[in-house]
Queue: 4 jobs
Job 1
Amino acid sequence: MMNLYKNILICFSLVALFTSCEEELDLSNPTALSIEELLQTDDGFKFLANGVLDAYQKVPANEFLISELRSDNVRANTENGNYPAFNAYNIDPNNGDVATYYSNNMSTIKHANTIIDNRFLAPENQQYTVGEAYFMRALCHFNLIRAYENIPYIDTVLDINADEAYDYPQLDPAVVYEKIIEDFKTSIAYLQDATVDRYRPSAGAAISFAAKAYLSQPSPNYKEAELLLASVVENSSTYGYSLIFTEQGSDDSDFENYKNLIQDFGHVFGNDIDGTFTDGVPDGSWSNNSGLEINDEVIFSIAYDLVSSDTYVTADSSLDEQVQTDSESFSFAMTLQGPSNGVNIASNEFLEVMTPELQPVRFYVSFDALSYNPTLETNDTFNAKFPTPGEIGDNDWIVLRYADVLLLYSEAILAGGNSTTDSRAIDAFNEVRLRAGLDEVVNLTKADLLAERRVEFVYENQRMYDLIRFGEADKVLQEFSNQNSLFYTNEKKYLPFPQRELDNLPNFYNQNDGY
């Protein structure tokens, strides 16, 4: 563990930090300023906050493998790399992606802790950066506990010359969730009056994630989650949040309505359709349109761009000699490049619930329709939500969107029950249904809600955590495993704790059960 933290801290990387802020700083001597000196500059905290966001760009690189590829939504039709092992629940503690996802989140946490440790030095006009740091620290720990379950909570930049890692044992998950929620709530106070920017943490995002943490903890607190989510849903216009949705005209044909709704849903992800529609079905293919990526449905996203974003410069911008970028790392397995490696293929089980007939809107945005052939049992149907044709991806990664908030609100009101007729839950649920071109419901069941989340958020790395949160993971994944000759057991809901963490502090951390 000490070696990991030494690497992370030594690589606090003023070079990388200043790379993310190159419009503001002279890079001729990027290590000229120490952290202490940087904090004394007029915009030092802004630069540090940009560094936190830049560090987080690396997190989605492995997230598809450790979440979606371990669900019943997708499969790997390949022998390449780690893909078959993740898909089969057959990974081990030495797996590189397991370790990298852990360390990328920890690296972001370290950047955030640099701001938090020095928060009393932040000038008045940069207090929002402290709120962003608390938010990002909470978000990364939220990622880690949902993936590994048994983790420490790192709340300071550790001294590389001391054995401070021994002060950070694995904690009871309930304790970790308390700390995550506390950090999200602390961030709200700092961000309450900050300018809303979809590429930066905001008060609305912090409220929503605090609620999601309440729902995800071992003993869900539905009432607190409901109160938080109600404050967002009931004030959505104030926050500027809404679904992208074209009202269906009474004089329009079903085909015309579906055409509009398909375009709307594609625009959520910053995508445009090339070509025309025939009887409401798109003839063309999707492509990224950066002008659509900042929209009212996106609450928080991470920019992946070949040029600077609106408010911070990404690690892959303006570096003429750079070959591999953070965008490429994010995009490869999840975009049109995925099929070349035999991944992001819809499982046969998922194709039973995601058909053009059952999902006339979501189907055409989520899948490459040309690859869909239900007459072939071995048909490979590919993801279309991130339609980058090359190795460098332009699609932003949406961390949170308003459709998630609406369905979480319904979940909080359902409160672990099997069904509800509460109008608030049903209205929120039906908003998402109507945008998908589906009929409204008058009674909302737990099964309906889980099924709706599955088709709404496919390829957005939600399914595995939804199954765990709803208490359905063992039942659903064991059946999926049995049908496909995989190796799921109830312990495999969570990843193994990285072996290098165990090796760096022998006899300090315990491996998760089943590994």
Note: The longest strand covers residues 298-302.
Job 2
Amino acid sequence: MASEFSALLRQLRHSAGMTQEILAERAGVGVRTVRGLETGERADPRVTTVRLLADALGLGPAEREELLAAAVRRTGHRNRPDGSTDHVEPTTGQPAPALYEPLAEVAELLAQSVAARWQREEEQRQVHDPYPLPVRWRPVPEKLIDHWVNVRRLPAGGTHAPLDVSGQLDEIVDVYRRIPSGRLAVLGRAGSGKTILTVRFVLDRLKSRARTEPVPVIFGVGAWDPTAIALRDWLAAQLTRDHPGLTAPGPGGSTLAVALVESGWVLPVLDGFDEIAGGLRRPALEALNSTTLPLLLTSRPAEYAAAVAETDVLTSAAAVELTDLTLDDLADYLPRTTRKSCGGDLAGTAWDPVLTALREQPDDRACADLATVLTTPLMVTLARAVYSDTPGHDPASLLDPRRFGGPEQLEEHLLDNFVTAAYRPRPEHLPRSGPRPDVDPERARYWLGYLADHLSRLGTPNLEWWRLGSGLRRRTRALVTALVTATAVSLTMGLLFWTVGTVVGSWPNVVIQFVNAAAAGLFTGLAMGTTYWFMFAAKDTAVPPSGMRVKVFGGARKAGRSVWFRLLIGLACGVSYGFGYGFVWGLLNCVLLHTGFPESLNISLKDGILFGVVFALGTGPAFGLQALLESPLDIRSAVNPMGLLRTNRRTGIAQFLLWAPGLGLLVGSGASAMMRPMTALLGPIGWNLASSVQVGVTTGLGGVLSYGFTCTAFGQWVVFSRIWLPLTGRLPWPVVAFLEDAYQRGVLRQAGAVYQFRHARLQDHLARRYRALRGL
């Protein structure tokens, strides 16, 4: 068994007609490594090394599986009769074989999640209705491609002809497999079908994927800042955003997301290189060239060429450029997207006269303009939505030279009318949601325009629900957070005091308590607004969604640094907030009771010290308990934006139900327990059991509300998306329903845990209209 891998590697190398030197050069490993693996001197082939060798040999899925299985068995995995494996410690202590099985299982779950997600997305975009628009490509100019010897991973001094990388949509995986380096750049102008190609690549690759091969995952690379975060770290962060369960600890102490990226289990499909901010494209390309990661990259040609001119081509990468649609493509596709004519020719459609004019009058200006516009899948899809899917619209109007002065006006017309067509009244019902809501197209265009402008100001294509407030000025965000927190705490405490006053009939005390409630809310708002400023607004960051859930029975994390760190944070917050709150509490009571200044100051200091100690004893254990009961989400969690929102909402409700009574009990019981020592230290204190209950209840509710609004992603969603932005007219009140409806109508698309506009051109168009309407 020990020589199985050696013999198999040697056999595969001979079949490929390579020497050990050529194989080493193509795989990017040392010749001594290849020689040692073939002779048996090295009994510890790393999984990543075996994958590089398989790529260099150009192995198919079955051969790759066989080679990696032989490597794993060689380093300590013995087959059982039932097909499972026993693990034996590798003789050399290399970690890769021990990491293989657990990460392979996680990769399988990730592959299933990715496949299901993009299959639904293809169906949602009606890619196959009636059939996918043809997407073809051709080689790009040689100046945009690395040396073919590098692409082919040939040894020094080798020369070779270019690879044949031409093809069409259903051949993309085969073309990619022919590239020994595993690096391909796909260039195409706006709307040429790059995103459709990446989705088809992922789905076809997953269908033919062997268990040993990496999982292709699409990343919207436009949101990457290469000067702030390294590529692998950014990939891991995006994985955990879309799959929160990957924050769970993985082999070697890192998270599962980091382990998958570092071990080569993820094949990055980087969509939208041109959407990276202009000044960051050069460092982005340099960062990509500093790695040997196999990848597929898409970009507009001009932006990619500009980045290449500033630094270098994408190292070891082949490159292709998507070609335009032809009149034959249009003639095959557009008539099949609309109804047959009601006249004598039942086989005819409203598109036939237009297509005939385009073919017979190519020199006519109107025909030439329309033919130019309809060379990209995006514009053809928009034309279909506006004229084929919308009753009563005649595509012949596109040939009116009095309405359209050129291709730009035609494109703006299609972009503008796409929203109107998408929001036309329809009788159909949506699954599990009843009738589709009627939304005024102009209002929808305004709200979508705000979202588009919001993304433009943030410089990202990703519409993240937890960052909807980030488009506001930082000071505005802090003030709004403070205002909402103060209002919520004041109303909560006031309602509690009113209830207590009604029960006991003590209206004069209730008046004082109402003043105290307002003061407590004001102080809480100022404190939490300041906290929010220093934690998030000053850094211009948003509160990230939680990758944890509260789990009381089983699955809780082991106590460790996180618990003790949270405990210390809770103690510090309790002391500072408690002292300030107690001081204000005592001062206001003295003012209302007309107490003299020296006595008022003395009482206020006593109350500040008392509340500081009491709150510290409550919030410290509460924070630690919260960390102790947090458990990572399931790996298959949150496959879409609303799924992630619902997960965070459930986590927030669970924290409220657990933490509010827990914090209240700790504060109330701590207050009662501390009365005797505090009385000995500070002198007589007017305190009784009713005071402990009152402080416990109000602190539990007020503390959890203020923390939730300030320091959780769901709380920030409520503050801005459910209160402030609808209140100021920027978004509708039912924001969730609006976003889901926009997705169902095809205006938005889903990319993991975020929304994106159907196309960057549509986002730019809506943002421009919004700014013009607002006079910005």
Note: The first strand starts at residue 77 and ends at 79.
Job 3
Amino acid sequence: MKFKRITAMFMTFLLVLPSFLVSAEKGESSSEEKKPQGEGTYAEKHEVVYATLSATGNQEEMYVVNNFKIEDQGTIIDHGAYTKVENLTDLEEIKQENSKVKFTAASDQFYYQGNLKDKPLPWDIGISYSLDGKRVASDDLPGKDGELEIQIDTAKKEGAPEAFFNNYLLQITLKLDSKIYENIEAPGGSVANAGKNRQVTFTVMPEKEESFTVNADVTDMEMNGIEIAAIPSSMSFDAPDADTMTGDMKSLSDATAEINKGVGELKNGIAELNNGAAELQNGSAQYKNGINELNNGSSELVNGSASIKSSLQQMSESVNGGSSDMNLGELKQMVEGLRQLAGGLKETETGLTDLKNQYSQANQALAQAIESIPASEISDADIQALKESGANQEVVNKLVASHQAAQGAKATYNQVSGAFQAVTPALEQSAAALGEMRANVNTMADGLSSSLENMNVDDSMKQLQEGLQQLSSNYSNFHAGLTEYTGGVSELAGSYNELHGGIAGLANGTAELENGAAELHEGTSELADSTSDLPGQMQGEIDQMISEYDKSGFEPVSFVSSENKKVTSVQFVIKTEAIKKEEKAQEEPEQEEEKGFWDRLLALFN
């Protein structure tokens, strides 16, 4: 039975073998018939650069996979200083002479690999490790526990082609086993779940040099290699619709201009207020000096008036007591005394008139200064808006305090201005009364002198007695009023000293306020100038940012050789060495001797 089975299978094999050989022969001849002849062309070339780094970032091995999109099949010439080339498409041999690579493309796509040596990457990548705050070599990390910090630094590689550094972005990825790494922190990067791993990703923009750190608590340290991909930042950026933002910026710019305008008006108002306060201080000083002079002369005025009063009383009593016993010489002396009394009344009258004029001038200056204070009232809402405008709060508080003080001084003056206005008429009335008394005294002196000339002594004495009695009585009333008046002047002088001190303080405050308002206006003017073209500035910043990162105009160039043409894309795939614990060596199983075709065929029959 076994023999019959073997014979049947062997016969079957003999029947199949010729057809197999024929098919192989046909395939061979077919391949030879389709083998392209002559020069070929290609439409696109793509380069993918693969590089390995040590765990600390030192460059180790590099090879490039070249892909061609074939237009016309045939012989293609490429360029590259490869140490070794390998056909990845078919079994055709690739010929290499120095930096020239020649191959035959027989399909629409052709791939080959070329190994490079001493060709620097466009980026200098440095990686360092610290454990519990101490720098640790990568070889000493496997199996360790503690607080781990990984620092990754990227920089431009000197001597490497600049086109890739200027136009490519780097994506750095760390895949960390969540069983080994906890409390992962990556400032400037993103941390996401990727299956059982936690994936940390950093991005480096074109023309930038960056430094990143990853911090984590590690147990039984192991880590896969860090993956770094470099691709052209060729995506174009569409300018965002900034109409809404520029509209808001325009509103802000207009508001800033309005604030500056308002502060300018406020500054002008404060300048007027300060000028008014200065005039008020000057007028108040004049009034203060005048009232003090009046007060200082009041005692002399009262004493002089008292002397006149006493003299009149003595004269009246003397005339009444002497009657006809008075001789002619005494009467003549009385005439002279009346003349002197009239002169004294004239001086007093002149003094009161001068005082009235000085007081009137001082009171007028005070009134003008008070009236120069603006009557406009700043509302609480206006004050709050000013405080929220960003102006210097100290200056704003001074503005408000000075404004309130100025309005208070104006209100106080309006309440007491009636008393100030009444002083001038009182001085005029007093001077008029003295003038009337002086006229009466002169009349008495003239009448007595005329009587003496006519020698009508009795009639003269009688008239003199009546006149002196009336004059003495009237002057007593005048002296009492004068004493009361000078007392009021003294009280007014004392009170006004305090008022003048307040006015002087107001003037000093408004002067400081004007300086502060000038500084405030200077600041708001600068702010208004800097924000006047805020929408344009913002649009300019947007355009600059887009131009900085928009690399859509970049034309790809070959990383391997500048002689390579029609390069459509170049990509970099970079990976560092993994940090792994050493595995225990296992005994390798005995390998069976590889069987040939006939051995396998005969085994079918066993």
Note: The mean pLDDT is 75.
Job 4
Amino acid sequence: MRIGFGIGLGRPVSVAGVAPLSPPTLTLTLTPATPAVGDLVTITGIAGGNPAPTDFASLSLTIGGTAVGLAGSGLSRTFVARAGAIAAAASVTTTEGTASTTLSGTVAAGPTVATISGFGSSTIEGDGASGTAAYALSLIGGAMGAGTIRNKGIAGTVLQNSLASGGVPLASNGRDRFVADLLGANRSDRLYILYGANDLRYTGAPATFNLAGFATDMREVMNGLLRGGYARGEIVIGSPNWYPDSTYSVGSAGFTGSNRTIHEAYVNECLAIATEYGVAYADVYGKLRDLGGVALMSADGLHCNDAGHQVIAHAFLTAAQVNARAAVTVGAASAPSLQTLSLGWTAVAGAISYTVEAGLSGSYGFAQTATVSGTTNSFTGLAAGVYVGRIRANFADGAGPWSFWATPVTVSDTAPPARTVTGQDTFTGKVAGTLVEALVPTLGTWVRHASSTGNAAITSDSVALRGPGTTSQFCVATLANQALGAGVFVELDYKVLTNNAQLTSYGVARASSADLTFLAAGYNGSAWRILKYVAGTATVLGTYTFAESVGALPTMRFEVETGIQRLYRNDVLVLTTTEPDSGLGTTGTGLGLRIGAGTTAWTSANGAPYTGIRVGRLGA
């Protein structure tokens, strides 16, 4: 018997019911096919071959030449779109070979800003993400083209400063830190607020720490931000992020025992507050719940993974303002008489009434409230203090957003002191072209300060005193000296010919004869201001924004007492500052005027020249 062995080589033979092996194939698709900035985009690999690829061997994506972070697994990844040309490259590998492909496209340009801020707790801070580039705030900044990202998230914090179980507010709460973190030098072009996830989980002091406290303090934050210079379109409030029911039983002392009903009440409150103030609202809760749920959470069940941070960024970037009703244009508030605060505003089409509120500056609360049908309101019987306020129009289908008074108003409960005139001059009827130091006043003697760089002169029509006819010059001149005593005042009559911020007309009090050190108050073409000058360096102490009508003839009175300065416009107190005497350097007793030219020179037909001046002391 012979036994033979042989090896046969050839193409695989298909076995009945089994597909033959084949090299892989790969194509890429985008959903949506033409994404916009902020869209949550899915890049999907459609793979073929036997065995079929189940994952990318490699995948890279750039938009506008910048690498974009991806989240997901398998043959699907997600990312938040930013503006620019899309370039993706991917490959898959199996035992039968490798397939590669590319994809290109464009995301149209959207709005860009220079700076953004995020304000909240651990999610804004970035917990759960794989690194800084994967933080929701970093993704938002990339999409908005922001060169500066201010991350003001602090893990473990709450928004409200309500009393916790220890009888004091929790540390670093948002209500107590928003001024320092979000205003002044930290003010950004866009602000993204994400608070509430920890507030709703805290059950340690339900009588004092609850939804009502959260709502009150969120409103106080909004009041402060809008009064502090943010526009409604620059703020986005996000709802507390979603997490599964199991998370309610996990946490440190006091942070367990909440439930879905409480959670969603906080979500609804955030929407209500965004509507009340007319800012944008991001449904972070709904997006996380509907676009992945548990799959978007990190292992602790509270924080989001990279895919979850992508969804949060998407929610913020696609947020929209939720109250499209008209806002009120607020007029100037004033204190026309003792214990009285008055305000006027422009009528809003379709409004059936207006809600007006006022309260002490610094409190963020509004104890005084009224609903009126007209366009003026006065609060009477007020205690002395500095007041701020807000107003909104009411329509048949709801209320419009709050508008805030531009400038605090001082309300007095005592009559102003008597005034004794010690120097005065009426410029009307003087010889045209006469310089201020050559004028003969009714009372007193004019002295032009030696540090002046230009001249003040009578206008060509002999009706007023104008400033320097050359740019970048000023003239300081005093009419009388008066010891501070109980106080001093400067009163100036104006004739507004044009409004130009480069032409300033101020009254001067306590001027030193040795250097340019004095207090000043007056008009700059768009606002009334109180300033201090120390050795020529000016500091604005307060501003009352009010543009005078061309042709107006306002009178300003500037009163100075120890540690307090008051500016009256037409006998209405519109601005009070409290600069201490110790901050003024070496001051003198001169009373008079400062009139200056910036990039525009004075003529006889521009600016707000003076038609009269009175100076003297306060009190009998």
Note: DSSP finds eight helices and 36 strands in the chain.
